[in-house]
Structure formats: structure tokens, C-alpha cells
């Protein structure tokens, strides 16, 4: 594959548009030809087109890297009806490759980035360095190496030219937000755009990511079931981040484990992502399957803290107050809270009862006191009801705005749900969430282990 990344705004937008248009023409041709085919032949032809579409999306989005590839990563584990049900598994399997790999940039190019940033040859900085990448992320590639003290390390290196490519993606963000405003007229596109750009631009700074990871490693030091790999600070630069290497099972292997194991891992994921946001007010804004490894000792290692968010105490308090209002069925209280915070620029046209139902449809799974197994239908409903024109709450959503400080919290909420749906994990999520919503005592074995760890640390 060619190493060059398209970095111009028009070129990058055109590649996505060209891929979509090409598939549309081919699928139209297939449907026309199917008139003369048997039912079996027609089905086979459409199936080939679906797989071709998946392959082309992987190639185009994977080759673009940056923000465009992030879209592909989300599509790989969130099914919102892009393809017919009969083609869903094959389509998702093809897209899933975006989680762990992308078309590789040559090692010679990546070596230049490493040596420029470290200001020394690879042979001086590392005792050994494997030139074959072990993973590829949206803006970088990961290698395995070893230090002179014997430690195995993971070295994440930013793609050359990716900063320009991401900035081009972010300029195109304005086009998408203007389209979004035709659906949600009250959306403050300028404020939302600034929040998204700020978080994405921060992701380009690996020194900042190293700082984020050190923060999370301190917060979760000696945790009973969460591991944040330590950062090798002296070898971190703007385009290079080095962390201690951890060995574990990737998400696709975890998905094939027995139900009880998947349920346990699901609870860990929920506790880590939601608990980090509400207990520590710092969290990864990128919960997706490629950012976790299941270790042999039962812990889950969490990786990648480039897309990271810290929120103020009042932001977390508002969200928890809104959740309590939904649990209590306090429609008037929820309407007041959201109006005062700026979510309802025209609160007079939104009925409190409709508002509480709209919010409940997004968070009912952890505000309902029952054991719930998360499956794809639950994920689909949450995404459609809260983000899609097909929502039964579309008119309510049209008159709402998103306060930028809460944007990545909502992203975390929906994407964590999507990962739990891939695991098909079951728990009484409400009983777990009550630990941070109400300060309740833990109701699960993992909760009690975490509480004991917190007491010991204190």
C-alpha cells in the first residue's frame, strides 16, 4: 500500500465521498441485474456487494487514519442498521479489523519519527526493537521493544504527516456539524466543534497522553482488577510514547469466553469507565474493544489515554442529579436541572414528561433495578432513540443543545454500552451504579473488592 496519507481537506473528504458513491453505483447495478437472476443468484450477488463495501470502508478509513478512522472503529462494534441483518455478522467482522490493525506505514518512515523525537538512534535508546508492528491505532503504530534494564515495552509512534491529516479532518467537522444543525436547530455548533477539536488535537500530543496515563496509573495503583501500564517517562515525546508491555487476550478472544467470564469482564469495564468519570472525574473518552486486554491473573489492562477528559465537580454532580431524577420519575426536577444548565434553550416547548422519557431511553439500562443482559437490540435502541432521526423523541431532541463539557461523557456512556453489547454481558447495572449515584454500599463481589482496596489506600 502507498505510504502517503491524504492530508488535504478536499482530498480526504473526497475519498470518503468517492467510496460511498462507487458502492452506490455498484449496488444499483447489482439490483438492476438481479431482475434477470434467480432468487439464489440475486442474494449471492448482493452478499458479494456487501462484503466489497465492508472491504472498501476498511481500506479507505484505515488508510486515512486520524478522525476518519475513528468513525470506522466505532462502526466496527456499533450496529445501527447500516447493512441488512442477514449480512451483519460478515460486515461487522470485516470492520472489526479496524480495532487492531490498519494499513501499515513502512518501518523506515516510522524509524525517522522515533529518532527525530528521541534525538538518538533506536539502537541507543533500546536494547532491542522489533520492526514489525504489533498493533495500529487511529493516529499511530505500536511496536514491541526492550530496554537495557530488561523491561519489555510497547512503543507507540505517530504516523508521519498525521497531524496535518487530523487537522484536515477537523476542518471538515464544520461541514458535518452544519448538517447536524439542520436536524437539531438548537445545537451550538461552534461550542461543540471547539470541544471536539480540542480533545482531538490533544490526542496528537503523546507527552500529554503520557501525563494522562500516569494520572490513571496513580489512581488505579495496586487495584484488584484494573491495570494501567506504567509509562517510561524519559522516552516519551510529542510523537513517541513508551509504556511497559503487558501480555493479554484481545477482545475477539474474550468474546468467545464462557458467559460467567464475560459477565465479570463486563462489570469491570462498566466500573472502570463510569467509575472513573464519576469518582475521579477523569476518564478515557475512547472506550472501544481495542483499548483493553484480559490478563491471565483476571485483571483487565486498559490502554490508550490520548482522547481524555477531565470534568469539574459540578459537571459530575449535575449528571448524577439528572440520573436520580430519572430513577425517581421526577420529570419536573429533570426539566429544571437541564434548563438551568443550558441543555434546553427553548424549555417552554418541551414537556417534562416527554423529556424524562427521552433521557430514560438512553440510560434505562443502568437506572432500572433488575438484571439486564446487554445485547445488540438494546445498543441499537439507545443509539437510535438518543442520536437518530428515527427516534420517537425526535421533536424533543430538536429543541435541545449539548453543553460541551458533557459531550464526551455522553460518548463514553454510549460506547461503553456498545462494548457491553459485544460481550453480551449481564449484571444489575443499577445496583453497581448506585455506588456513585447514591453512595450505596457495593452489592457485588467485585464491588466489595474495590471498596476494600479504596479503604486500604485511604
Written description of the protein model:
Among the domains are: 9-99; 310-457, no CATH class. The chain has 458 residues and is an alpha+beta fold. The protein is globular, with a radius of gyration of 23 Å. A hairpin with a 5-residue loop joins strand 8 (292-294) and strand 9. Helix content is 58%, strand content 9%. The chain contains 19 helices and twelve strands. Residues 12-37 and 74-82 have low confidence and may be disordered.
Spatial extent as radius of gyration: 23 Å
Classify the helix fraction into a percent range.
Answer: 55-70%
The overall average pLDDT, rounded, is 80
Kindly name the structural category. Answer: alpha+beta
Note the topology.
Elements: H1 9-34, H2 39-64, H3 66-75, H4 88-100, H5 107-118, H6 122-125, E1 128-129, E2 135-136, E3 140-146, E4 152-158, H7 162-183, H8 189-203, H9 206-219, E5 226-227, E6 240-244, H10 251-254, H11 259-280, E7 282-284, E8 292-294, E9 300-302, E10 308-310, H12 313-328, H13 331-341, H14 352-367, E11 372-373, H15 376-387, H16 394-398, H17 407-423, E12 426-427, H18 429-437, H19 445-457
Parallel strand pairs: 5-9
Antiparallel strand pairs: 1-3, 2-3, 3-4, 4-6, 7-10, 8-9, 11-12
Amino acid at each position: 500500500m502507498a505510504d502517503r496519507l491524504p492530508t488535504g481537506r478536499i482530498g480526504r473528504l473526497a475519498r470518503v465521498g468517492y467510496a460511498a458513491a462507487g458502492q452506490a453505483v455498484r449496488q444499483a447495478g447489482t439490483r438492476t441485474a438481479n431482475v434477470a437472476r434467480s432468487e439464489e443468484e440475486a442474494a449471492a450477488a448482493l452478499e458479494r456487494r456487501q462484503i466489497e463495501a465492508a472491504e472498501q470502508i476498511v481500506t479507505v478509513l484505515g488508510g486515512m487514519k486520524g478522525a476518519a478512522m475513528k468513525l470506522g472503529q466505532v462502526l466496527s462494534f456499533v450496529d445501527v442498521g447500516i447493512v441488512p441483518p442477514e449480512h451483519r455478522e460478515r460486515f461487522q467482522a470485516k470492520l472489526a479489523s479496524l480495532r487492531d490493525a490498519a494499513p501499515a506505514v513502512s518501518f523506515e518512515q516510522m524509524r525517522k519519527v522515533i529518532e527525530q523525537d528521541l534525538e538518538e538512534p533506536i539502537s541507543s535508546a533500546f536494547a532491542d526493537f522489533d520492526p514489525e508492528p504489533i498493533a495500529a491505532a487511529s493516529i499511530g503504530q505500536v511496536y514491541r521493544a526492550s530496554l537495557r534494564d530488561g523491561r519489555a515495552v510497547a512503543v507507540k509512534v505517530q504516523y508521519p504527516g498525521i497531524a496535518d491529516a487530523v487537522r484536515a479532518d477537523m476542518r471538515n467537522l464544520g461541514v458535518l456539524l452544519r448538517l447536524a444543525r439542520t436536524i437539531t436547530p438548537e445545537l451550538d455548533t461552534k461550542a461543540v466543534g471547539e470541544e471536539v477539536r480540542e480533545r482531538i488535537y490533544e490526542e496528537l500530543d503523546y507527552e500529554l497522553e503520557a501525563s494522562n496515563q500516569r494520572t490513571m496509573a496513580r489512581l488505579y495503583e495496586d487495584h484488584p482488577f484494573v491495570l494501567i501500564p506504567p509509562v517510561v517517562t524519559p522516552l516519551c515525546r510529542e510523537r513517541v510514547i513508551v509504556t511497559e508491555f503487558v501480555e493479554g487476550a484481545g477482545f475477539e478472544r474474550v468474546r468467545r469466553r464462557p458467559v460467567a467470564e464475560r459477565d465479570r469482564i463486563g462489570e469491570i469495564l462498566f466500573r472502570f469507565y463510569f467509575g472513573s468519570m464519576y469518582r475521579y472525574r477523569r476518564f478515557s473518552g475512547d472506550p472501544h474493544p481495542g483499548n483493553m486486554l484480559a490478563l491471565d491473573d483476571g485483571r483487565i489492562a486498559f490502554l490508550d489515554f490520548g482522547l481524555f477528559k477531565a470534568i469539574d465537580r459540578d459537571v459530575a454532580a449535575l449528571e448524577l442529579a439528572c440520573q436520580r431524577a430519572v430513577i425517581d420519575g421526577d420529570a419536573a426536577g429533570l426539566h429544571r436541572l437541564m434548563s438551568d444548565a443550558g441543555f434546553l434553550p427553548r424549555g417552554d416547548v418541551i414537556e417534562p414528561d416527554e423529556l424524562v422519557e427521552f433521557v430514560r431511553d438512553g440510560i434505562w439500562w443502568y437506572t432500572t433495578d433488575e438484571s439486564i443482559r446487554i445485547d445488540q437490540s438494546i445498543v441499537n435502541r439507545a443509539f437510535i432513540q438518543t442520536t437518530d432521526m428515527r427516534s420517537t423523541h425526535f421533536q424533543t431532541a430538536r429543541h435541545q443543545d449539548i453543553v460541551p463539557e458533557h459531550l464526551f461523557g455522553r460518548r463514553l456512556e454510549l460506547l461503553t454500552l456498545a462494548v457491553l453489547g459485544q460481550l453480551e454481558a449481564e449484571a444489575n447495572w443499577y445496583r453497581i451504579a448506585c455506588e456513585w449515584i447514591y453512595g450505596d454500599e457495593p452489592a457485588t463481589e467485585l464491588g466489595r473488592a474495590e471498596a476494600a482496596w479504596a479503604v486500604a489506600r485511604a
